[in-house]
Amino acid sequence: MSQDMFLLDCPTYEDYLDTFVTRNDYRFIRNIRFCRMLVELGYRSSAEIYTPEQFVLHKAAVQESLWPTKKSTIFFSDNLKSFDPVLRELAIRERPNIQKMLSTIIFLKHRLKSGFEISGYIDYEHSLRRANLHAEDSIDWAGVFGERAVLKPKRCHLSYFDWHKGHVYYNNSDNYAVVHDVEYGLIFMHKGDHKKICVDISRELYIL
């Protein structure tokens, strides 16, 4: 958290990128947009460069730690009444995920009214935290556990596949980096213990 304190001095995402731009960058490139692009691509710092969404979330987390706006984290499954086995398993894992004692990736397939499928992988803890912060396009977990909302993948999740339209999206989360391996295919690497999780069920789950 301490390494993100400087985000309070950055009113916008562009201001955040500018903190990595050097005087020599201005002198030789003379194009602030191109300078920022180099920062986003990771050419100006060995530190992780946040995406616009990550910038908003990390800044909100710093502000929340200094000036709390709510008494405690909301546990959306606390009043779960459903006997749906999937919801009950997610409820069991909610608190350990929020407390960083467990990390869960959810794989989803959702059939649209057109009959075509979308699918994707969700970082459960990251999604719960976004919901607590009321982040844009976050999952309505209260509605999901109350069976008022459908749990389905979105383009902002770890991965999103629209098989009919041929659209594919990948996004790193605060907990996982998306890795494309020539041999193993799609892999999620946990940023904490660096374990690599292979999604190909015909192979070993963890890769050294």
Automatic annotation (TrEMBL):
<dbReference type="InterPro" id="IPR027887">
    <property type="entry name" value="DUF4464"/>
</dbReference>
<comment type="function">
    <text>May be involved in spermatogenesis.</text>
</comment>
<keyword id="KW-0963">Cytoplasm</keyword>
<dbReference type="GO" id="GO:0005634">
    <property type="term" value="C:nucleus"/>
</dbReference>
<dbReference type="GO" id="GO:0005737">
    <property type="term" value="C:cytoplasm"/>
</dbReference>
<keyword id="KW-0539">Nucleus</keyword>
<dbReference type="Pfam" id="PF14713">
    <property type="entry name" value="DUF4464"/>
</dbReference>
<protein>
    <recommendedName>
        <fullName>Cilia- and flagella-associated protein 299</fullName>
    </recommendedName>
</protein>
